[in-house]
Fold each of these.
Amino acid sequence: MDTEERRRGILETARRDGSVDVGQLAVELQVSKETVRRDLNALERHGLVRRTHGGAHPVESAGFETTLAFRTTMHVPEKSRIAAAAVALLGDAETVYIDEGYTPQLIAAALPRDRPLTVVTASLSTVGALASAENINVLLLGGRVRGGTLATVDHWATRMLSGFAIDLAYVGANSISREYGLTTPDPAVGALKAEVMRVAKRRVFSGVHTKFGAVSFCRFAQVTDFEAIVTDTGLHSSEARRYALLGPQVVQA
């Protein structure tokens, strides 16, 4: 197995499993740990993976995006804590946008049921979770359904969204960095998220620590556009402070 073939295999494993471990790869590939580290460093330079302590995880890009089904299996305890902390920021909002993705779906499930709320969403999964909820009126944006995420996109969705004035938007992203802002692999998704940013009075980003420092294909917002960033304690405290210096409140659950 040559170097390029080995690195392709490492990338495929990272995308299949959600992460890779240096020691495990060294055993499986019958190479040294230092060789694996060099491979991961090379993949990181090409923007394909993000190094972590002892391994790496894949970066979502124009050519690769995880499915909703996969996201429901990764970092579930962290996502549940993030959702609870995000809902604590609801305040007196009466109209709420819930983005596509598993963490936003958990936010929807955690919304209070003892007060009237109107929820706008592109996510079929969120609609299913809220359709029978007492006191919650749900509006689903129309459009083309993306099979991997079970969410609507394209001009039908953005046109419908453009007619609203939303109190609070819970926005997700595939990647977030201080330099490039919030990004997503799909241009259609990016266009919808950009419209959400335009029509929402308040905006809260929620996402696990693995999204930070990575960059996907389509930028739709800057870090400074948000009143709050809600993540888990896996984001280093010094990095959290750097994001807070840009303006948003950073909440680590």
Amino acid sequence: MAAALSPDVDVVAIQYPGRQDRRTEQPVEDLAILADRIYEVLRRQPELPLTFLGHSMGAVLGFELTRRLEADGHGPVRLFASGRRAPSTYREENTHRSDETILAEVRRLSGTASALLGDEEMMRAALPALRADYKAVETYRCEPGVTVDCPITVLTGDSDPKTTLDEAKAWAQHTTGSLDLRVFTGGHFFISDRSKEVLQVLEQHFQAERARTVG
């Protein structure tokens, strides 16, 4: 998806500890700690217009990073919150408490390539990072009155079992700016299945930012 954006958009991906080229590092089980660590890196970067896009746990992480950066007066121009209910909407979820429930949930959401799902050894190797992610997002709590100032675009799938339409709309409670809700056909991983449509939304945003900057 990143390669399909305009060349003047500098895409930087955040790689969590315990995954891929950081697989030797200890996974982080607390979302606030993870947000603090990423914030410490971002605050030392050159001041450029930032746009955050986070899917699932990444949406909440983007929200927490926005809070921290805005407190310093350097918040992003927009947050794209994808595939995740609003921060203060609560569900009792305990997927992280056993390997079996984690594997069952991953299979249910079909978020991993079918070849990997059938590779028991690979799935077991991925479990520490998956467990940390699930624990971080399932133990995260946010009060209803906590807001950011930047506008938020919420991207959601119309059949996502992790986010209802009302839970997606509830992001409006967490910004003093505008809320733009975009509903796509699909489940939790609509962002991959409907990547062309998602890219169109992103390009519209960057075009508007270019026009605003030039103007």
Amino acid sequence: MLLGYGGDGSTGNGNHPSSRSLKDVLLLALDTATPAVTVALHDGTRVLAESRQVDARRHGELLLPAVDRVLAEAGQKLDAVSDIVVGVGPGPYTGLRVGLVTAATFGAVLGVPVHGLCTLDGLAHASGLTEPFVVATDARRKEVYWARYADARTRLTDPAVDRPADLADQMAGVPAVGAGAVLYDTVFTGVRREAPEHQSAGALAGLAALKLAAGEELLPPQPLYLRRPDAQVPANYKVVTPR
């Protein structure tokens, strides 16, 4: 069953959780862990403005203009933001770091907390599903990042990265959402095409608002890679020092 995320959502920074009034909250949410460069502004109750552009090669170029655009659409200034929410992955190394570094910079400049959320959790929340399902995103290298959920709010397993073929036996007929599920629909045969395929910062912020209000603890804003970056030092690399 699909309910739609409706703009609800998380906690933060590794501090001890406590319930929080969202009366004066203004959340700036962003995520660059997938090909979608997405930004949203959320007042604790609803999404005020949101931007999403799908371009796997232009995260750094698109993110800051998207922040400016969202703030302008909502009629807000950056210094009004009370909290930063950022998707921590899993995702490819370069794109993921763009969002995390930007979030950390905003947090430091504004003096506000930065809260991390699993990117897969944002996609799960956006799906609105009330039954067990799987979220899968494209991890490149013919692999997917994935996790199981009891419903749109409750993750059952840690995020993992695997080849779709290795998951075939356990994914047949299981409801699935996300670009990875759509890409490998011969494995994820229960793919829900009516659910969002790409990440939504509005859903991420909505999930963060729910968790903040409930006093649930969020993740620290640290990257969740699950595998080593593509660029590595060659095995026979020799350091050359001047004489």
Amino acid sequence: MLKLIPATDRHHAAPVHWLSSHFLFSFADYYDPKNIHFGPLRVFNDDVIQGKSGFPQHPHSEMEIVTLVLEGELCHADTMGNKSTIKKGEVQRMTAGTGLAHSEQNDKEDAAHIYQLWFLPNQKGLAPSYEQKDIDFLDSKNELVPLVSGQKVLEDVVYMNSNSTVYWCNLAADKTVTFKTFPIRNTFLYVKEGSLYINGVDVGPNDQIRSTDENVLEIRASKDAQFILIDLPASEANY
């Protein structure tokens, strides 16, 4: 079954002048008991952070936090002693584990556009850790590029403690990619731009597809498109 969630159903939040967020799941002041998580995917925030601003230091625990930078860059600092700049096309994973605090600042004049995803970990009590990699995913063509995964068999990806894999795809008009899955797995897809035709369903910019009990997704671009696809266990237990 494919469930289409249109862009207009996203929750928009602008709690401060420098931040514009679209929440795809319950988060902060947005609460919908029917939209808490999708398997272990607990948070998906589509954020635009204005220049010379950002999130001051704040705590996290028992969560795998993935950040993709789509435009601009973000400066990261945490209580583990890490200090880095996450640039366009780079991917960061932070295992909050037993607890840490971090800050995220946009020190440039131009806005930064990021996706931030939170996954329930496959085990609790992990030591906090951090990984960052330049995967240059925004320049890929007509293929699903793995960015973050709990599958150690995949190379050149950021590892996370969740039985999930995050892919990116830049798909040219009239090109098709096929994603094979299983009824015990879920697939989440979010379109950044362009339009897609997925198993008979038209999907436009900022629309979501939440797929359950499918064996294969045939994804064709009606217009040049960019999208993120996440392969997930069907339950938050992360098996």
